[in-house]
């Protein structure tokens, strides 16, 4: 059986190659008479036959109606979600800014440790506090800088 199949395949491949080399030898299929398709479709309509093309067109039409009916509500939902996301981002940014401002102003309250950018400014601020006497330190290690 395998020998027959392989020889048949070789013969068909040879015939196909030959037909491709000599297209003038293959006859043209006859063209249908004008209006034949319309006659066939009219007969199918008369009989009430449901064709695959009609079913596909019907599904396509209902699909388009369904998508078009959902377009506006989905657009409204999308706009609302974008507004909510933007407001949530804004609220988060405001909270982060408030936290940053509280951290920057932390040294200004009286109950916290006094902070200064430079050591000399620290001495001046300490002198202004009543009842505190300080001694100047000439040599300060790097660990003591504030």
What can you tell me about this protein's structure?
The protein has helices at residues 2-21, 36-47, 52-104, 119-128. With 146 residues, the protein is mainly alpha-helical. Mean pLDDT is 78; it is low at 109-116.
SSE blueprint:
Layout: H1 2-21, H2 36-47, H3 52-104, H4 119-128
Number of strand segments: 0
Q: State the helix count.
A: 4
Main beta-sheet annotation = none
What's the mean pLDDT score? 78
Please state the overall shape, judged from the principal axes of the Cα atoms.
elongated
Helix share bin? 55-70%
How far the N terminus sits from the C terminus, by CA atoms, comes to 96 Å
Order of helices and strands: HHHH
Percentage beta strand = under 5%
Radius of gyration: 45 Å
Instruction: Indicate the low-confidence ranges by residue numbers.
Output: 109-116
The helix/strand class is: mainly alpha
Summarize the structure.
With 146 residues, the protein is mostly helical.
Feature tags:
single chain; 146 residues; mainly alpha; 4 helices
């Amino acid at each position: 059986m395998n020998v027959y199949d392989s020889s048949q395949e070789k013969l068909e491949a040879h015939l196909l190659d030959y037909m491709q080399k000599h297209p003038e030898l293959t006859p043209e299929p006859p063209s249908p008479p004008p209006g034949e398709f319309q006659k066939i479709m009219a007969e199918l309509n008369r009989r009430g036959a449901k064709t695959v093309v009609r079913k596909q067109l019907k599904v396509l039409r209902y699909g388009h109606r369904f998508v078009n009916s959902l377009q506006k509500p989905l657009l409204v939902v999308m706009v609302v979600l974008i507004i909510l996301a933007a407001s949530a981002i804004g609220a988060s940014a405001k909270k982060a800014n408030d936290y940053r401002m509280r951290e920057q102003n932390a040294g200004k309250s009286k109950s916290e440790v006094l902070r200064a950018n430079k050591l000399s400014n620290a001495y001046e601020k300490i002198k202004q506090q009543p009842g505190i006497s300080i001694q100047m330190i000439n040599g300060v290690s790097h660990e003591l800088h504030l």
